[in-house]
Amino acid sequence: MPMITKVIPEESIVETLNLINKASKIVIVAHKRPDGDAVGSSLGLYHFLYSHEKETTIILPDGIPDYLQCLPCAKEILNFETQELDAKKAISECDLIFCLDFNDLSRIGAMAGIIGESPVMKVMIDHHLHNSGFCDVTISHPEIASTSELVFRLICRMGYFTEMSLESAECICAGMLTDTGGLTYNANSPEIYSIICELLRKGVDKDALTRKLFDNYSESRMRLMGYMMYKKMQVLKEYQTAILTLSYDEMLRFNYKPGDSEGFVNMPLTIGDVICSIFIKEERGVMKLSFRSQGNFNVSKMASELFGGGGHFNASGAESTLSMDETVKIVKEALPKYYQEYSENL
Asked: Does the pLDDT of residue 53 top 70, yes or no?
């Protein structure tokens, strides 16, 4: 077992292991619009449970991006939108539910009611702030960069690192890489690299996996990316902030598929004097906001106070039911306040 600090309390380890040992059918659920960490952590845990002869089903509120289909058994994941009957059957028959990479039932959309009402024991594994405490066992550590890392730590602390399969290791590595932008942000902890080293020893080809995750997009995405950077990026130099917007009509123009805008919010941060980037995308009449920042610019506070969102200090999200123009207006009008707070903390 690798020498890493014991972040997860021993009581939570023991409770989780007991629940796994008693269970025969297990369901894993993650948040809507799943990213690499949601899918990677779910599949990492899935392969671990499968190796322990547990009948396990992953159910997501909607489909996963194409670039994550490369992960082992990704095609086995149930999409609640298109496979509702199968998903409900699995939930009704299971005796344990893992809730991964989300801290509130609202994050799983139409699945919220059926998961919330299920009488079986539930275990949360998550790294976002302000969990709502709806699970029986809560493993919640916002100081950890990814839920996938927490899954790795859980498996190790339960005493099964030696038995961890290559498939599990690859999925965990994928989640860790995607939630840190390929180890370019939220990745200053030396233990992240210790864990990556252990995953490499399991046989993970990090270079090949990185190419699949970050260099495996469609021509349409490339053209959309160029359009976004040239036509849709506003740089507000006085606040060292960039704002990107993407409407539903523009998505149609570029044959948009889930995941095509992955990473767009990070791109303006490569501009030398930009420290905050905000990406606003229209989805089914709702504006989805992604916030990213560098240094002491608190985008979690901005997302929370303006739109009731949240997340991490340098990476947060929110939703707005207002129009695109109204949403952008709110952001622009609030920027002087948050930039001043940032400047005062320099």
From this structure: yes
Average pLDDT, the chain: 95
Report yes or no: 278 and 242 within 8 Å, Cβ to Cβ: yes
Quickly list DSSP for 283-299.
Answer: ETTEEEEEEEE-TT--H
The count of other CB atoms within 10 Å of the CB of residue 236 is: 17
The Cα–Cα gap between 195 and 147 comes to: 13
Number of neighbouring beta carbons within 10 Å of residue 260: 22
Q: What is the sign of the dihedral through the CA atoms of 294, 298, 302 and 308?
A: positive
Q: Which two tokens stand for residue 234?
A: 């506003």
Amino acid identity of residue 42, one-letter, is S
Which residue matches tokens 């396990």? 56
Contact between 327 and 289 (Cβ < 8 Å)? yes
For the chain, the residue count is 346
SS3 content of the chain, % helix, strand, coil (to 5): 45, 20, 35
Report residue 43's pLDDT band, with 50, 70 and 90 as the boundaries.
very high
> How far is C-alpha 255 from the geometric centre of its chain's CA atoms?
24
User: Could you give the residue ranges of the DSSP H alpha helices within the chain?
Assistant: 10-22, 36-51, 84-93, 112-117, 147-157, 166-178, 190-201, 206-214, 219-227, 248-253, 299-307, 324-344
